[in-house]
Amino acid sequence: MDVSHLLDGLNEPQRKAVAADEGPLLVLAGAGSGKTRVLTHRVAWLVQAFSYSPLSILAVTFTNKAASEMRGRIEQMLGFPVAGMWMGTFHGLSHRLLRAHWQEAGLPENFQIIDSDDQKRVIKRLITSMELDDAYWQPKQGQIFINHHKEAGRRARDVQAGHDPQQQQWTRVYQEYEAYCQRAGIVDFAELLLRSWEMMHNNEILRLRYRERFRAVLVDEFQDTNNIQYRWLKEFVGPQSNIMVVGDDDQSIYSWRGAEVENIRKFEKDFSGTEMVRLEQNYRSTSTILNAANAVISRNQGRMGKTLWTDGEDGDLIRLYAAFNEVDEARFTVDRIKNWVEEGNLRSEVAILYRSNAQSRSFEEALFNAAVPYRVYGGLRFFERAEIKDALAYLRLTLNHDDDTSFERIVNVPTRGIGNRTLDIVRQHARANSQTMWHSSSELIQGNDLTARAANALRSFLELIDAMATQMSELELFEQVEHMLGQTDLLAFHGNAKGEKAETRVENLKELVTAARNYYQDEEEEMEPLSAFLAHAALEAGEGQAEAWEDCVQLMSLHSAKGLEFPLVFLSGMEEGLFPSQHALNDPARLEEERRLCYVGMTRAMKQLYITYAEVRRLYGRENYTTPSRFLQEIPAEAIEEVRTRTGGYQAAWQGHQQYDTESSALPGSSAGDLPLGARVLHDKFGEGVIMNVEGKGEHTRVQVNFEYAGIKWLVLSFAKLTRL
Ligand code: ATP
Ligand code: MG
Prior knowledge:
The protein is built from 26 helices and 21 strands.
């Protein structure tokens, strides 16, 4: 068969990687050099040139969206569908394994996945039931502790707590948590990986079977694999299998989740005879953007060293906008997006990137007000909304009565007279007898241990769930969802409430039926459709909205932008303490990670890159004066065009950043009108001075004052306590 077309559109080193002989292969290369493209072509090559069955390929990508795009491209190249190819994220693939081998994994058949929010609730309840003070033993801390150990492959019994009483206590919480999850048949995200790794590691028959099956294992974004993921991979790679990994040490941005860039170095040692390919030409960005990104990342120490160049055009300068505040930043961004669209471009070609998910709100507001369609990845996720989680909890409980998390969530939603006192009795009974809530409830009802009213209320709840379970078994997936909404009165419950929020909740619940109707189940997955759907809901939360039917602007955190590219990119919130983030400011290792994140952000842009920062930012309910990010200083000044200049420019602002007053008690009635240039003023900290400059309007008015002793400072008038003399 002629396979040469699979090498079309590739440069020399790319071809070398795609058509490499069987054996371990490592592609180490910078952003936009075609790593993902090479991986995709390699899969097609293995199928067509080496006659691998699609069933024998395991490919790990960073998101489910990336996996489906990759599948699409491979099918296009091959000209036939490749159902049965295992392509997905570490979590998704682990889940698939556990479903197929729940018995070997020691799980109940109907085990359910809980997300991070549910995990925290569970931990909180356990902490309370252990009679610890949850103000001191914070659930969030416990969650970090547990996930950290799971990601390092450690069970509670493997944790070396030493003599540290705190570590010992957390280890006990971890132990309780493990026992609880096992009893309830629930699995958190980290558990998916740990459990499937243990299963493969300890079950030789299974391991050999999969090693025989998967002749090729391919991994994108390898720099962000953590300890357990790397071990997981190795279980699938036998002497016969081919492993190919692609990555970029400069784009390692998940060390806070345990990712180890060292895995790249380990790889060469662990797989002897590794062939290493380097790609050096960037095809994505203009040379202005690429050079600027290269300059920034060059400040990091201890890089593996790569070259990255482009023969593309210079393109536009990077535009820098100094906004008054976050509202102005959003307004500016939306204006530019409107221009972009008026010039005949697509909204989907535009990405707004931010460091912290909370930043999305001001952009959402501005886009909404300007009637510009947009989509948020991460953050406000459909499947994470409270009413949707209630509905999912009902569905989960019908499948698995032992799922205590779901039980707790909806036992009294909508209100059905099951009070906290009753629930406490059930909880205590459950704990004393190592039972689930469901089991305890039925025992207590039978044993006449509850008041008649409580017993009745609880009984009708159990009956409702049981009845639904029976009735739903005959229905199609979307009908099951509809049925549940009707039987549980969830729709009516929210429908009767007043206000816009209630309306949105009803809409969301209805949308859940649509989501179920549109849900496509991989044929190879032998799973109850409802189980598969619920797993999908838990796993793909933020990506659920991925298939846009409407052309819309893309909003996402820098972390979730990894691997993507857009003609027009806005990199927002470039301020010290936001990006780089506050906790990185005094920590060189974290600072380097922030710089890599900045590199990732800049290299998403193909044609135009805007960078914005706000002089005053209100975030998490606080208002702060800002200093432009140090990363701006690291971009060669020739590459930057300032669209609106902070007086003196961003460089002066950086140099003088300690001069900003950060008091925030307002002086009502003060406006620039009262303070003409040259007026003498008194500040209670800086003393006397003269107004030199006035900028902005209304509450954003800023004045520059030359203080006799404190020197020249910019102050926001509505916050600074100035008295005219
Ligand atoms: P990242 O590090 O951001 O994940 P990457 O190395 O995976 O980037 P790709 O996304 O595969 O890079 O490729 C970047 C862009 O360059 C894509 O639009 C891709 O189609 C294009 N590209 C890659 N190689 C070539 C080539 N040889 N000729 C033309 N375009 C190419
Ligand atoms: Mg890529």
